[in-house]
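Bumping my old thread because nobody answered last time. Still need a sequence for this structure:
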């Protein structure tokens, strides 16, 4: 995460574009979505460096796993099998800690399956919602 922050400071747009490229498989549809997303990002202003640093520090220092035990609502966890930030082995650990939650692993997806596998992701989400 620290290296990611340094890269963001050095060259924000290239770092974001590289991150997105690593998270999306090479299907024609995904590449078109990726191209659109990169174009949208290129028109946005870079975030303030202090805010960016603070946001990444929150990700590094905040652990909400204990707060999950307080929640009394259904929980769906969706993972990408190829995710290098949140490896799929985490799902097995959390399955044991939170047996009442549901975990799904989307094969051939990385960290952003809601973009790379949007139809499958939405199908999983809608099925979960219908079963509430």
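Sorry it took so long. Here it is:
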């Amino acid at each position: 995460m620290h290296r990611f922050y340094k890269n963001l400071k050095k060259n924000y747009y290239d770092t974001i574009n590289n991150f997105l490229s690593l998270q999306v498989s090479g299907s024609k549809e995904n590449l078109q979505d990726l191209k659109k997303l990169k174009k949208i990002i290129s028109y946005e202003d870079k975030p303030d460096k202090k805010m960016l640093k603070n946001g990444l520090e929150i990700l590094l220092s905040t652990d909400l796993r204990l707060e999950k035990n307080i929640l009394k609502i259904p929980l769906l966890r969706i993972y990408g099998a190829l995710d290098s930030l949140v490896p799929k082995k985490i799902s097995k650990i959390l399955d044991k800690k939170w047996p009442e939650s549901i975990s799904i692993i989307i094969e051939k997806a990385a960290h952003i399956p809601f973009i790379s596998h949007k139809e499958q992701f939405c199908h999983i989400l809608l099925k979960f919602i219908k079963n509430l």
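Residues 28-43 form the longest helix (16 residues). Let me know if any region looks off to you.
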